[in-house]
Design a protein that fits this description.
This protein is α/β, with parallel strands linked by helices. It has helices at 34-46, 76-98, 115-129, 143-149, 152-163, 175-180, and strands at 25-29, 53-60, 102-109, 133-137, 168-171. A 5-stranded parallel beta sheet has the order 3-2-1-4-5, sandwiched between helices. Strand 1, helix 1 and strand 2 (53-60) form a beta-alpha-beta unit. Helix 3 (115-129) crosses helix 5.
């Protein structure tokens, strides 16, 4: 890189800010998959800086009661919230606590189970939190599964480009996961 008076990168003084760094709020969209764990680890390795606040966001989407094996006497949304907190603690909280990362868990409800609605719910929560970024894992689904079920990640990118100034970071599945599912992208 060229600098004034022929100085090189090595001879340039290091830039040091005299202002304290502003805390960033980083949203990590989670579900009960290894892809979410992968995105959290990627965020910690590449984006996270001490003092940042990590917001784990899980969306509960309505589904026909026949898809759940909950006891009918129980409130199904309440049960799902408790299940979400349990899996979040098991899969994510331990890693964040071990790394002394400040975090909070947000379990939010979507109006519909379609990908577009779930993506909008994540984006709305990120806007509400004033997030600096949204991190989401690209699931290792086949092209046919993506076609029939949709892709929250794809919808989030579409929404972000038109409705929000919050950057969306897409974390691909680990290389071995992509080849197991027939992906060679």
């Amino acid at each position: 890189m060229k600098h004034p008076a022929g100085q090189t990168d090595a001879s340039m003084p290091a830039h040091r800010s005299i202002l304290p760094r502003r805390r960033r709020d980083i949203v990590v969209a989670i579900d009960d998959t290894g892809d979410s764990e992968n995105s959290l680890m990627w965020m910690l390795d590449t984006m996270y800086m001490p003092g940042d606040m990590v917001h784990l966001v899980h969306v509960i989407a309505p589904q026909p009661e026949t898809l759940h094996n909950w006891n009918i006497a129980n409130n199904s949304e309440e049960t799902e919230i408790l299940d979400t907190k349990a899996f979040a603690k098991r899969r994510f909280a331990r890693v964040l606590e071990e790394n002394k990362v400040q975090f909070s868990l947000h379990v939010v409800s979507a109006d519909s189970s379609d990908s577009q609605c779930i993506a909008k719910t994540i984006q709305d929560k990120a806007n509400e939190l004033g997030a600096a970024a949204i991190v989401i894992g690209k699931h290792s689904k086949s092209k046919i599964t993506q076609f029939f079920l949709g892709s929250v990640t794809k919808c989030l990118i579409t929404n972000a480009s038109r409705d929000s100034a919050i950057p969306v970071c897409i974390v691909p599945p680990p290389q071995d996961s992509r080849t197991e599912h027939g992906h060679t992208e």
